[in-house]
Amino acid sequence: MLLLGAAACGLALVPTHLLSLVCGWSLGVPAGAAVAVGGTTVAALVGHAAGRKLAGPAPLAWVERHRRGAAVCAAIAAAPAGRAALLVGLLRLSPVVPFAVTNTLAAVFGVRRGPLLLGTLVGLAPRVAAVVVLGAGLERLAWASPEAPWLVAAGVAATALSVLGLGWATRGALQRLVPEEAADRVGSPRI
Predict the structure, then answer these.
(1) Burial class for 103, CB neighbours closer than 10 Å (0-12, 13-18, 19+)
(2) Span 123-161, pLDDT tens digits
(3) ∠ CA(37), CA(24), CA(125), 5° rounding?
């Protein structure tokens, strides 16, 4: 399951949340969390390798449109290993930044594998573990008639607030760690 999940997530065929949910449902919390965190971490390597081989000219067009994002990528690539891992972890912590895009851009900008793996492990672990816990609690998924509709509404509201709050906090941390003037110094990524 680990290798299949890692390959599917790394090649952007399956979202990491699905791997986490299935691991929780099928393996329970401790084993499911270990497999899901391991799978998403290995998936980052798969995505990084695929991004290096298949990226083409699309990232260069992205750099021209998104100077701040390019500055973050360049800062990660140029940072010492510990700081690079911290920056990758913050990106992974954000629910807004897509997993596969991060892998591809990390490859294109020359982010080293070690910081990518460590940042992925630390940044995705909380979210992966939370989804594993949800998956472990599923007996079956039945939305037809929820027993407490207010509970579903409260869960949706709490999720939306969490996603917005986490995205806002991560964006603020990244802006403090990557100075704005770095966006002006962004060069072409290494391909």
Answers:
(1) buried
(2) 899 888 888 988 888 876 555 555 666 666 776 777 677
(3) 25
Per the structure block, which two tokens stand in for 55? 């990226």
Domain boundaries, the chain: 2-185
State the burial class of residue 49 (Cβ atoms within 10 Å of its Cβ: 0-12, 13-18, 19+). Answer: middle
Rounded CA gap, 30 and 59, in Å?
Answer: 38
Query: What is the distance between the alpha carbons of residues 115 and 130, in angstroms, rounded to a whole number?
Result: 23
- How far apart CA 46 and CA 65 sit, in angstroms, is 26
CA distances from 89 to 57, 127, 178, 184 (A): 26, 12, 14, 24
CA gap 141, 51 in Å, rounded? 35
Residue partners of 49: CB distance under 8 A and separation at least 6: 10, 107
Helix axes 67-78, 81-93, angle to 10 degrees: 140
